[in-house]
Model the fold of this input.
Amino acid sequence: MTKRPVKFAFPMQLPRYVSPRVAGETAKMLEATGVVDDLLIYDYLVSFNPRSMWTPDVTPLANTYPNDDSYHDAFVLAAIAAGVSDLGIGIMTDSMRRGTWLSQTMFSLADATAGQVTLALGAGEARHGKPFGYDRKEGLGRMKDLMQIWNLMLDCDGPFDFDGKYWKMQQGYLGTIRPKRRPKLWALGGGPKLIEYATQYADGLLTYVPGVWGTGQVCAETIARIKDMVAKNCRDPDAFEIGVMAGTVLHEDPQEIDKILEHPLVKLISALFGRIAMKDWISEGHEPPFPVDWHYANDYFPISATRADMEAANAKMTREMMWKSNFIGTPADVAAQFQDYIDAGVTWVVPIDLGGFCSLDPAESVRRMVDVARILKSQ
Done:
């Protein structure tokens, strides 16, 4: 099996307190490092931080951004970034609220930058669904339709019909002028049905670790199964890529790491994502922070989540669980933890620095994440 060099993506979303042009400034700054390959932009409608906890007594950021639910459109940010840099552009979005027009948007983005353009398509989350009139239960079915339509838009030489579960198309067509570099479509998530669709129709898979794949060994075993599924679908397993995002606690000072691990929002993110399936905590000998059948994508509504309920979940997150939920330590330590997954077959990594909730110095957070990239690129 062909071994690919690892690519490093930097995560970004911007609140509407700042100009969307900051996306371009960020892209140019990251490109200048020489070690960042892609900019990954989240398609948010509202934050995953509960309103009840976005207060100055919890995070100093609440003094600067008193409302954490005001975000710029991800596709606008992507266009701005693509227009001023040659970084690759990734967008994380969902099939629940986005439609067949995504192909046209990604075609244009693909020709706006010399980098690789990737759409990571998930089934959706309740926080982006119910409040805005969408049904999260339709997400996977819509994903299957959209993945097939995406490929038809790229491969058909003329108008086509499509009879899907949710989309019925007659004479669908975006013309025959295709992007010079083909945009990639990845599935976003880790469930069995999503993986099934990914191995049939997508170019790769992006998931969250350690929350979905708790160790490098689990990752290696799962990737082997995924590649086998790709091959059984008469597709090239070597061409199918695997990316991982990981919550990280990055700092050179162990005492600062201890403080970050006790931060209420860091604990909550770890409770939400440390193990996506709550039953996994039980199998590892821990009491889960939420009920065993609870899943953040279906059951978490940060607008209405009470502080008392979130603090109760935090209280169940032991120090051992916090260390199991995140990649923790110096940039060298975190790079080594990513390397376990790279050795297992991962080709694309995204660190998400949770320490930013505790500090108003984003430059230091950026520096540490770039240091992780520099170390991984040198190995």
In short: The domain at 7-378 is CATH 3.20.20.30 (TIM Barrel).
